[in-house]
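Team,

Forwarding the record for the chain on the shared tracking sheet. I've put the sequence and predicted structure together so nobody has to dig through attachments.
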Amino acid sequence: YCKRRFDFTRAMSAGLLSTFGLVTVVTQSAGLRYLQRHLSEPQIVRLCFSCAVLAFLVYGTAATPAPLYVAMVFLGVSIGGIAAVSSLASQVVAPPHVGEAQGVLTAMKALTEGFGPLLVSSLLHAFEGSSLPGAPWLLCGASAAVAAVLSLRLESTIEAHAAAAPGHNGRYAAEPTAGWRAGEEGEEGEE
């Protein structure tokens, strides 16, 4: 897409991928730890999904190469959403079913990582030469927007699961307060 639409050179492509890679590394290491001190996991999920929406909107509407680098920054931040969703699943799902929930998340991630590029590349070819060649990226943004809207229901869903779960004492394990760790008041199994 970048080579055909913007005449990207190998160096430009390497710069674009390096931008994504560096931001992803920072997000996955220090960025998520910082966010966890200030936001709840549902808020982190919404932030990350919103970054994905912005990234795809910028990528799909860019008229010059420069905005693509900004899009890669947003896309790199969005990767943290998967880690937050995985963490939420581990805390909300009953302990005997955590492995099953993690397996479903991993399988869905693998499916989207496998079929997503095939679908988008086919659509990019179909939209090439049209008045909006970045339309497939806008469709990706719409998909991420659906996920962001659905994530607005996370707190109510978590509260319902926490209230029903015997080991949570009626509270969600990853509230944005000081954080829940073994040994603190409210530890699982404590009365």
